[in-house]
Specification:
The complex is a heterodimer of chains A (about 425) and B (about 170). Chain A has about 425 residues and is an alpha+beta fold. Chain A folds into two domains: about 300 residues, 6 Propeller (Neuraminidase); about 60 residues. Chain A has a four-stranded antiparallel beta sheet, with no helix packed on it. A four-stranded antiparallel beta sheet of chain A has the order 7-8-9-10. The radius of gyration of chain A is 23 Å and the shape is globular. About 5% of the residues of chain A have low confidence. Chain B is mainly alpha-helical and about 170 residues long. Chain B has two domains: about 110 residues, Potassium Channel Kv1.1, Chain A; about 35 residues, no CATH class. Chain B has nine helices and three strands; from the N terminus they run H-E-E-H-H-E-H-H-H-H-H-H. A three-stranded mixed beta sheet of chain B has the order 2-1-3. Chain B is elongated. The N terminus of chain B is likely disordered. The chains are: A alpha+beta (about 425), B mainly alpha (about 170). At the A-B interface, helix 1 and helix 2 of A face helix 8 and helix 9 of B. Chain A: It comes from Actinidia rufa. Chain A: This is F-box and associated interaction domains-containing protein. Chain A: It holds the Pfam family FBA_3. Chain B: This is SKP1-like protein. Chain B: Part of a SCF (SKP1-cullin-F-box) protein ligase complex.
């Protein structure tokens, strides 16, 4: 039963309304789709003509038709990284400061508060980031973990790794400390998101390793990946409810162009090669399994050589390829298997709403990552603030608590070790 | 406890055992093989605990519905039936109007036949999913306990879901 119909049937009577809102009903509804394998393929790609990310939904397993018509309500046009779905919810991230939890079927989303880390010096630049969206297996609560590696100026080594964990039920971020040593040696630019399975989130890490985060205990670990896999382009994905690592290996001086390998993790750190086979040279990178058991790749489009990439599906048994239609930049594709969910994440309807003082503070500060700009941002903010006070004008952002922001700014500024005379409130 | 009399019965009647199911609504009787009827957990429990007489009365289920249930059980008791055949047969059984399906789902629930319950529920879900909620209300005989204002408020929560519906 589609979520859309259930939302309408809440109008039938009060009893049906409470029934459909009931969390147990919500779980049964989701489990029913999973056990009947009713997931649908959702493909994120970058449309060059509109310069926007678009989401293509394939209504059934044949992958013959695509629908875009429902997607005009997608929140946050500039938001690019997507992870999930966890219990039918997606997590979107704009690479900087803005996270959104999105229920695609309910057309609801929630903007998360800014992940403020008290120890982060404001002028440090983020050099690498990774995030993961998963479920605390004990409380069944959704969590987002954000890892940022920061550098001071152009130094070649990172100056710190900052970790924040968001919990959906409390709508708050917490920060984890003293993880620099462990994490700074692991992060790579190719592991921005990974894959979640049974309470653990997995990212590709450097040197044939896999970084894991236990969503319940909130502990990181590093485990061994399969030996001798090439560093790029690899993909961590799910295969038959196991963690799998997929990679393309270039084979020099041979008749085949590329070799495709799927390694499956049977036990923690123990990998078995599940599949290996030749691929044509046009294939650029693995995208993951689709809901009909075929494998998806990003491939160079033969007609528009190098300009547009396309998504093709590959049948591992018959070795047949099929073009699925969507086109875009090669590194900006993402394929996800989607189940509809009745989980409500209300908190925003197509606009940021509510108490956003920390997000706005972020706009003033964290995005401007050096001293002079920081001071400039501070001056701008204080001028705004003074104008509201003295001339009774309307503030630019009506939903900011200016007093709170000022307090927060002062704390950030002080923790950076500099001093400045702020105008009095 | 139950095994002793059963062995006795088996010894006295080596041929296939049958059970008689009787609809209490229109007193229709159906004679079915025991292994067919035992797909119903309710009947199995009755037989196992030895409280099933020669005729098992089935309250609240009409003969017409009981016939469909028995047809389903017969199909699924046939060990040589392939999965595809069963799917086709199931589709035939549930190709009925919505009111028959509701009676059938109640019967499947009472007799505790999981497969029939699932396939009938899915068929009902498929038939009502594109109906306006007013029609669904009528089908299930649900009384509307909303005031017009309350109903409008619930509707406003997800207004987009009602596009194209009255």
């Amino acid at each position: 039963m589609p979520v859309k119909s259930l939302l309408r049937f809440r109008c039938i009577c009060k009893h049906w309304y409470t029934l459909i809102l009931n969390p147990t009903f919500e779980h049964h509804h989701l489990d029913h789709q999973k056990s009947n394998n009713k997931g649908r393929l959702l493909l994120q790609h970058y449309d060059k003509h509109t310069s926007q990310y678009v989401y293509a939904l394939f209504p059934d397993k044949t992958l013959a038709t695509t629908s875009y018509h429902d997607l005009d309500y997608v929140p946050g046009k500039g938001i690019v990284a997507i992870d999930g779905p966890i219990n039918g919810l997606f997590c979107l991230f704009n690479y900087r400061d803005h996270f959104i939890i999105w229920n695609f079927a309910m057309r609801e989303f929630r903007s998360l508060p800014f992940p403020y880390h008290p120890k982060r010096p404001p002028h440090y630049k983020t050099s690498l980031w990774s995030f993961g969206f998963g479920l605390d297996p004990i409380t069944n609560d959704s969590k987002v973990v954000l890892i940022r590696e920061l550098r001071n100026g152009l130094r070649s080594f990172p100056d710190g790794v900052f970790v924040n964990v968001y919990t959906l039920s409390t709508n708050t971020w917490r920060h984890l400390d003293d993880l620099d040593d462990l994490l700074s040696k692991c992060l790579t630019a190719y592991s921005r998101t990974g894959v979640y399975l049974d309470g653990i989130y997995y990212w590709n890490a450097s040197h044939h390793r896999v970084l894991t985060f236990d969503m319940g205990k909130e502990v990181f670990r590093v485990i061994l990946g399969p030996d001798s896999t090439p560093d790029i382009p690899t993909l961590l994905t799910l295969y038959d409810n196991h963690i799998a690592l997929c990679c393309l290996r270039l084979i020099p001086l041979s008749t085949i162009d590329k070799c495709f390998e799927i390694w499956v993790m049977e036990l923690e750190g123990s990998w078995i090669k599940q599949f290996t086979g030749p691929l044509p040279g046009l294939i650029q990178r693995p995208l993951g399994f689709s809901n009909n058991g075929e494998f998806l790749f990003v491939s160079i489009s033969p007609e528009t050589w190098n300009l547009d990439s396309q998504v093709i599906s590959y049948n591992l048994t018959t070795k047949e390829f099929r073009d699925l239609g969507p086109k875009g930049y090669d590194c900006l594709f993402k394929a996800l298997i989607y189940y509809e969910s009745l989980a409500s994440v209300k908190g925003g309807k197509h606009k940021r709403k509510g108490k956003l003082f920390d997000s706005i503070a972020a706009r003033y500060f964290f995005m401007i990552e050096n001293h002079s700009k920081f001071t400039y941002g501070l001056v701008l903010f204080m001028r705004d603030f003074q104008m509201i006070k003295t001339r009774n004008t309307k503030p630019r952002y009506t939903d900011i608590d200016h007093v709170k922001v000022r307090g927060m700014l002062t704390r950030v500024w002080e923790s950076s070790g500099c001093s400045v005379d702020l105008p009095e409130i | 406890m139950a095994s002793a009399p059963e062995n006795e019965k088996n010894a006295s009647a080596p041929e296939k055992k049958t059970l008689t199911l009787k609809s209490m609504i229109n007193n229709e009787e159906f004679v079915v093989d025991e292994h067919v009827a035992l797909q119903s957990v309710t009947i199995k429990n009755m037989v196992d605990s030895d409280c099933a007489g020669d005729v098992i009365p089935v309250p609240t289920i009409s003969g017409e519905i009981l016939a469909l249930v028995i047809e389903y059980c017969k199909n699924h008791a046939n060990p040589s039936a392939s999965e595809d055949d069963l799917k086709k047969a199931d589709a035939g059984i549930v190709a009925k109007d919505i009111y028959t399906l509701i009676d059938l789902v109640l019967a499947a629930n009472f007799l505790d036949i999981k497969g029939l319950l699932e396939v009938t529920s899915q068929k009902i879900a498929d038939s009502i999913k594109d109906l306006p909620h007013q029609d669904v209300r009528e089908i299930f005989g649900v009384e509307n306990d909303y005031t017009p204002e309350e109903e409008a408020a619930v509707r406003a929560e997800h207004d987009w879901a009602f596009e194209g519906f009255p």
